[in-house]
Design goal:
This is ScyD/ScyE family protein. The strands form seven sheets. A four-stranded antiparallel beta sheet has the order 1-27-26-25, with no helix packed on it. A four-stranded antiparallel beta sheet has the order 2-3-4-5, with no helix packed on it. It is built from five helices and 27 strands. Strand 25 and strand 26 (about 355-360) form a beta hairpin. The longest helix has 9 residues, at about 10-15. The chain is globular, with a radius of gyration of 20 Å. By secondary structure, it is mainly beta.
């Protein structure tokens, strides 16, 4: 998710060479739980339709939903009866990353980046009593620090002769390189006290902690994801039209660990969804757990298809929107396997409020031609049974 300047074929290479398990991350571990519950999907209600790129949703007081219309530059509220109101309108700016706490609504603003003629904007903001206040200017911080600039992505141990055999269109992402100077804050989570705002940045490949009391920002840069090129993977790439020289067999490839959503658990840890740069490739996404105090990351579940949204319920179940798989899955408390819960068209985000699951669906345009906005805010009742 580094922007449109990356060649599609090179981005496809980064995805195809990514695995959710490797030297940089621990093996999947279970989520602690004292009880086991089965959950199924019940009655569904479309609360809102005609939304433009609804990639984020949060639920606040009085069952009010806050939805980002990312492609329309708007933050929209939807009450329990389906009435819509525009809270923030930013023409030309992507509005996203929505979360809410004690009546305040937190969101992100993004524009520009590498190769774009637009000004570089990457803010974390809060809507307080109708007034927007910027909490952190991540564009300025990323410009000054390039947080993943010291990371090493691409092939790590090729000989000069082998590197010279890689096609020029693949070389920018295939050969060793650091992260671009780019911030794309994509999701937020807020501590119960409201002091800390956590930000998943899909451009900087980092999780930021904004301390609203001290007005400071700290960063946890996520480690690259490591993959060894096997004969099976080499053949799979060739089948996709990505032709690499045979000398890459056995070589190591580091991919960007793009975070797409995060939630703060009752255990004080952050739960993240992550995909390897481009979400079209199946089964390479993961759910991870991050200790914000130590920066230690471990994998909870892998093998997910474009996981872009995450929610936790009080029982320890983890719900995941798998965008291009057309489904919402659940990782039951105490397990590491994602099981399909319900089918949905292009689900981008999920949120839990009591016994209801909220999801944004039809979140992306479905065809090459411009079409009227078709995004949906869907509410599904969850039925639990003791196991």
């Amino acid at each position: 998710m580094k922007g449109t300047s990356t060649p599609l074929v090179a981005a496809a290479l980064a995805v195809a060479l990514t695995s959710t398990a490797g030297a940089a991350l621990a093996a999947p571990t279970s989520v602690p739980s004292q009880r086991s519950w089965a959950v199924t999907a019940g009655e569904q209600t479309e609360l809102a339709t005609g939304l433009l790129g609804p990639l984020r949703v949060a639920i606040g007081r009085g069952n009010t939903a806050y939805v980002s219309q990312n492609f329309g530059g708007q933050l929209t509220s939807v009450d329990r009866n389906g009435a819509l109101a525009t809270l923030v309108d930013r023409p030309g700016i992507e509005v996203g990353g929505v979360s809410t706490n004690h009546g305040e609504v937190y969101f992100t603003e993004s524009a520009g980046g590498p190769g774009s003629p637009d000004p570089f904007v990457a803010n974390v903001s809060v809507l307080e009593k109708g007034t927007v206040r910027i909490l952190a200017d991540l564009a300025a911080l990323e410009t000054a620090n390039n947080y993943d600039g010291a990371s090493s992505y691409g092939f790590q141990d090729l000989t000069p002769e082998c590197a010279g055999l890689i096609a020029p269109e693949l070389a920018p992402l295939a050969l060793p390189h650091g992260g671009e100077t780019y911030s794309h804050p994509y999701a937020t989570a807020v501590s119960n006290s409201g002091r800390y705002v956590y930000v998943a940045d899909a451009g900087a490949n980092a999780v930021f902690t904004v301390d609203t009391r001290r007005n400071t920002v700290s960063a946890t840069v996520l480690e690259p994801v490591v993959t060894v090129i096997t004969e099976q993977l080499f053949a799979s790439l060739a089948d996709q039209g990505i032709v690499l020289p045979e000398c890459v067999l056995g070589a190591t490839f580091n991919s960007e660990p793009v975070p797409t959503d995060l939630e703060l658990g009752t255990d004080g840890l952050l739960y993240l969804t992550s995909l390897p740069g481009v979400p079209e490739d199946p089964t390479l996404g993961s759910v991870r757990r991050l200790d914000p105090a130590t920066g230690v990351v471990e994998v909870i579940a892998s093998g997910l298809t474009s996981p872009t949204g995450l929610a936790l319920d009080r029982r320890g179940n983890i719900f995941v929107a798998e965008l291009f798989a057309g489904r919402i899955s659940v990782i039951a408390a105490g397990t590491t396997e994602a099981v399909p819960l319900l089918e949905a068209v292009l689900p981008a985000d999920v949120e839990i409020d009591g016994k209801y699951l909220y999801a944004t669906t039809n979140a992306l345009p479905s065809g090459p031609e411009p079409a009227p906005p078709a995004g949906v805010l869907l509410r599904t009742r969850l039925d639990y049974s003791r196991q």
